[in-house]
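Open question from group meeting: does this chain pack into something compact, or does most of it stay loose? Before anyone orders reagents, we agreed to write out a predicted structure and look at it together. Recording both the input and the output here so the notebook holds the full record.
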Amino acid sequence: MISLQSRAILQSTDCSFPTDLLLLKEFKALVDEQVKLLGVADRFRPRLYAHSDFVMVKLYAIIRQISVHVAAEGLNAYVTKYYAKNHNLTPKTFADNKRKRRFIPHQTEVDKYFRRFSEKEVQDLFGNTLMALCRKIAKFFGLSQKWRYLVDNTEYPYYGKTITPYEQKTYKRHMGTKTVRLFQGHSVHCQNITLFTDFYLLQKGKCRLLPIPNSTEWLMWNDFNVSYGLMDREFYRVQLIKALKDKKIPIIIPSKKYPKVKRVIKDYLLKKGPLVSQYLFQQKTGAKPWRTSVLINIVVVGHDDQSAWKIRDQFWTGKIGYDKALHQLSAFFTTLKPWKNERSWARWLTRTYKIRWNQETGFSSLNKIHYQFRYRNPIVQLAELYLRALIHNGWQFYRNQGLKQGIHHQELTLFWYRMSKINELEAVVLNSSIQNVNPLQEEKRRLYFET
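Structure tokens returned:
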């Protein structure tokens, strides 16, 4: 988060973790309620555990930066020790005199559970859970707060041999492979906080723009007041800009230097054209299914925090040549309404567009949460991406409140250290096990414990 690290603030560890933000009991209950609406609840009915028990093990592993096996064994040992200490009960031994009854799902059961999901079920379960956290944070800032909409694609290397529609070739080098999986992440930004809202697994040969209009509708349905969207050149499409304009969501996007755009820049440099002008953005002739066009504004700007008019003045005073001046000029496409002071508006556009880097660095932060992120199953990878986003959003709010208290954390390490020190997650898992195995119920007592 570049914008969050721009100020020097005294470091301290006195900031308390906002336990009221993401109550894990609430998270567990939300997962169990959402699962009831999915097909996986009919295909899989666990006898000894709740559906959320499998998710909690995965979430605990990500928070502690450990493997799922270590997380499952550690939590199971924690619950076993609790029963032995407080109730003098030991888990039942199986006939082989080696294995004992477990209170926490084993790593193989957790992995098998996540492989049961379809892509749509992952979107419904973890997407709704993530949005519940986002709405809670948005409510804290106020429903009238305006949010900026960000979207970006990211690549994760793939080293498997099985090729599905989700694996694609790339020109980038990823440590020995050019096969990747492409994920699209959507987020919102305001008051120096960036929240991931949803993710999409992109398939080869399918349009990468399709999730964006639906995602904006989902945000507005959840009471997010979206002021405008910040797009990369990767989303330089007439259909997308027109669809968002029809939904009354303005966009800001850097324009590519096509011949018509170059003429606008040259006219401004030679004092033949204005700083801001209208531009008919349309598809090329013969585009299918029909030719689309949209009327937008084009604004001439300068590179490297330089204003376009200063570059033009340097050219006319002979300080720089024509080619260099033309190279330092660029343009923005936007559907926003221009201000009366066009120069101030152009400066505001360039400063505002830098916020989009919060999306770029956001994916970097997701990777730092748990460095191991290689899966044979792309659906499991999508589910874990949502769980990482839950932790990331909680960290963003925690750090945002810490900044207001005069506390500054340069790295994520301190946050993960504090997370590993709190026993809230272990306590929730323990309470879940107590509910599943009530010592006062004789039938469950005979099932789980030595008699």
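Observations to bring back to the group:
The chain has a mean pLDDT of 80.
The beta strands are 146-157, 167-169, 179-190, 193-201, 225-230, 251-254, 276-282, 293-302, 329-334.
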